[in-house]
Design brief:
The chain is mainly alpha-helical. It is built from six helices and four strands; from the N terminus they run ααββααααββ. It folds into two domains: 1-74, Multidrug-efflux Transporter Regulator, Chain: A, Domain 2; 114-161, no CATH class. InterPro entries: DNA-bd_dom_put_sf, MerR-type_HTH_dom, MerR_fam. Keywords: Coiled coil, DNA-binding, Transcription, Transcription regulation.
Length: 161
């Protein structure tokens, strides 16, 4: 079948199919004497495997290592090991995301708990110091002055010059 037919069958664009071929993922392509690509029926299955693996989070390099050159020669054990590794990676990512969510929720709570007697800059310093576990200096805004960390340098206003 030609690339247009394969694109219709798989829902992929011809350029995506060519990309997978150039990336070494789709090896079942043959060239006709006129230079056109010719794909066997199993090319559609290979493309489905590639796109399914991508949706599952596998990189193209990982997919390249897992795809057999021929569907009849697949390594069952290697595939199972790769799938198990991906599950382990996902579980580690879930833990990291849960930790990040907890930190963000706490940060929102800290920001909302702004004491009424301090301004936003002081609240930012309070929240950031709590997050970092150390005292943080925040620039002090001075009218007609320069901002510096912990110090201000007063410049004369244009009226005073």
């Amino acid at each position: 079948m030609n690339i247009g037919e394969l694109a219709k069958r798989t829902g992929l664009t011809a350029s995506r199919i060519r990309f997978y071929e150039s990336a070494g993922l789709l090896k079942v392509v043959e060239r006709r004497p006129n230079g056109y690509r010719s794909y066997p029926p199993e090319a559609a299955l290979m493309l489905e495997l590639i796109t399914t693996a991508q949706r599952a989070g596998f990189s193209l390099d990982e997919i390249r290592l897992l795809l057999p050159p021929d569907l009849k020669q697949r390594n069952h054990e290697a595939l199972l090991e790769a799938l198990q590794r991906k599950i382990t990676d996902i579980e580690a990512l879930e833990v990291k995301l849960a930790q990040t969510k907890t930190q963000l929720v706490a940060l929102i709570g800290d920001i909302k708990a702004k004491p009424g007697d301090i301004d936003c800059a002081a609240n930012a310093q309070r929240v950031l110091s709590g997050v970092l576990g150390r005292e943080v200096e925040v620039p002090i805004a001075i009218t007609h002055g320069t901002k510096r960390f912990g110090k201000t340098s007063q410049r004369p206003s244009t009226k005073e010059r």
